[in-house]
Amino acid sequence: MVKLTQGIKNVARFLFVTDLDNTFVGDDEALAELEQLLSQNRQEYGTKIVYATGRSPVLYEELKEEKNLIDPDALVLSVGTEIYLDKSNTPDSSWSEKLSPGWNREVVLSKTNVFSELYPQPNTEQGEFKVSFFLEKSLATRVLPQLESMLKESGLDVKLIYSSGIDLDIVPSGSDKGQAMQFLRQKWDFVPERTVACGDSGNDIALFAVGEERGILVGNARPELLQWHNENPANHRYLAKNICAGGIIEGLKYFGFL
Ligand code: GLC
Ligand code: MG
Questions:
Q1: Are residues 30 and 89 in the same domain?
Q2: CA torsion angle for 25, 59, 257, 31 (degrees, to 10)?
Q3: Do 76 and 192 reside in the same domain of the chain?
Q4: pLDDT tens digit string along 41-87?
Q5: CB–CB of 229/217 below 8 Å?
Q6: Which ligand lies nearest to the CA atom of residue 243 in the structure?
Q7: Which pTM value belongs to this model?
Q8: pLDDT mean across residues, the chain
Q9: What is the pLDDT of residues 7-42, one digit of tens each?
Q10: Which domain covers residue 163, as residue numbers?
Q11: How many domains does the chain have?
């Protein structure tokens, strides 16, 4: 009897990974419903909840307070360059250690300096493994390839992530939301079929591209994500009709998680 109950629990348990801005957050009413469903699932079955956002710790705390977000089991901040476990205030060191080879913040800064099209984001949004700018959408198609080849030529192993037609993040190539999700999935022993990621913009592509995890694109997904989705169709990914948390609930039901 006990064994049977445990069996059911293990099947019902899943790993829930979500972007925050315009994905988890954006429709207050649907968010309240989703938080309730997730909290209950976590309590009953041991489902794990992870927020994966481009925000720094400072901007994450602001949003958490403003929307009174439920506590996650882990936090992936600064586009996957920082992972926080068990409410810790210090980024997980085994993750940080993976990001150091091929990364040099000073060299990134000196190479990007010559591009007048790049406007540095506020200091709070600069991280040990993240250099961020604003870059106008109309300039991006020209500037991004130039910048990328210049950084590669200088021997750095970095990646450019462009989101929402404005945000440019330069990070170590071994680091993004998707790789951070896999790190947690393996740590907590979830199979890809019991893992689901939700997002709306460019920095979420990594969540959907990294493997066979289930993916939910909310109905308000941005053009850069929709374009990628159309060019890379997959049965394990679902484009919702509803926006934000409403789209997430729709997708969780579609995949049978709820
Ligand atoms: C968040 C961060 C910003 C980043 C963007 C996209 O807005 O604050 O630094 O560029 O996400 O990842
Ligand atoms: Mg977003």
A1: yes
A2: -30
A3: yes
A4: 999 999 999 999 999 999 999 999 999 999 999 999 999 999 999 88
A5: yes
A6: 2
A7: 0.94
A8: 95
A9: 455 578 999 999 999 999 999 999 999 999 999 999
A10: 103-172
A11: 2
> pLDDT value at position 1?
45
Which residue among 20, 22, 55 is best mutated to probe the pocket of ligand 1, counting the most ligand atoms within 8 A of its Cβ?
55
- Mean pLDDT, residues 179-196 taken together: 97
> Does ligand 1 have an atom closer than 6 angstroms to the CB of 81?
no
Take atom 11 of ligand 1 and give the residue whose Cα is closest. Answer: 54
3-state secondary structure 176-198: CHHHHHHHHHHHHCCCHHHEEEE
Q: Which ligand is nearest to the CA of 58?
A: 1
Are residue 203 and residue 127 in the same domain, yes or no? Answer: no
Which of 114, 148, 172 is a domain's end point?
Answer: 172
